[in-house]
Amino acid sequence: MILMYRSLFAIGKGCKKLKNLTLSDCYLLSDKGLEAIATGCSELTHLEINGCHNIGTTGLEFVGKSCQRLSELALLYCQKIGDFALSEVGRGCKYLQALHLVDCSNIGDDAMCSIGMGCRNLKKLHIRRCYEVGDKGIVAIGRNCKFLTDLSIRFCDRVGDEALMAIGQGCSHLCHLNISGCHQITDNGITCIARGCPQLIFLDVSVLQFIGDASLAELGEGCPLLKDVVLSHCRQITDVGLSYLVKGCSMLETCHIVYCPNITAAGVATLISGCVNLKKILVEKCKVSERTKRRAGSIISYLCVELI
User: Fold this and answer.
1) What share of the chain is helix, strand, coil (3-state, %, to 5)?
2) Which residue, of 70, 74, 165, 206, has the fewest CB within 10 Å?
3) Is residue 2 part of a domain?
């Protein structure tokens, strides 16, 4: 522990111009070590803390107070870091453009509100399995971060339609959206995205059980630039909805429709015939007819069709 602190203190003292730092699986790294880095390397622009289980709130507070030029921050598997620390980042790091949070169980809505209000230049936000983040935090992002282009909120059970409404109303430049596994989201939320984010090119709504054909109809009408869409494990979508999507999104290049029980061979045929730019379909082999195979000139595996 003493050796680790002395090493980081030396880096903080001797590497004043350090801009990019990754701390991965440093089990002995403590708040004191991170404080030494933050106060000594105030010109940091990129910081990743991955699996450093002894890092808590105090260490990250010093990052927020000292590293005002920070543009990208990644906190992965940091169970001890809480809202107050990330709130300090929101207050101090006005130039933050990218934030990645994975399995940070003590980070919730208060922190996201501070990020939204303080980091208005945010362009990329990726959150996965942060179960305390809900609608309130994402609403703050939607209302304040007008330049957001890339949003991924995966398996966050408290995020629902209210969050997507704010994103649709406030983030018209959004290009990439991944909301897989956010089980509260329904057709209403997807409708807000379709009507407010016309530049969307990538969408992953896999494992959402409450979206259906209405969502695909809205996407077909509102998001004509869509190129990649993931619909796997969406049990309510049918061939009808898929036809709406195909009609409006003729630029589609990839489409994942694995384990969608109401998508049939007819729907797959519609997809292939209606999208001339299609390069890949992920689908069960049993849903690809012999006629569709011939039309696509495809190579088929058990779950996917690769178009060449």
Assistant:
1) 40, 20, 40
2) 74
3) no
Q: Are residues 176 and 155 in the same domain?
A: no
What are the angstrom distances between the C-alpha of 291 and each of 56, 90, 152, 180?
59, 56, 37, 32
Q: From residue 191, how far is each of 34, 137, 174, 250, 273 by CA, in Å?
A: 43, 20, 14, 19, 26
Place of tokens 């107070």: 65
- Mean pLDDT, rounded, for 118-131: 97
**Mean pLDDT along residues 174-187:** 98
**Environment class of 180 (CB within 10 Å of its CB; exposed 0-12, middle 13-18, buried 19+):** buried
- Kindly state the percentage of the chain with pLDDT values over 90: 77
Pairing of strands 98-102, 202-204: unpaired
Same domain, 14 and 148: yes
Q: Does residue 288 contact residue 299 with C-beta atoms inside 8 Å?
A: no
**Strand 98-102 to strand 304-307: parallel, antiparallel, or no bridges (unpaired)?**
unpaired
**What per-residue confidence (pLDDT) applies to 294?**
64
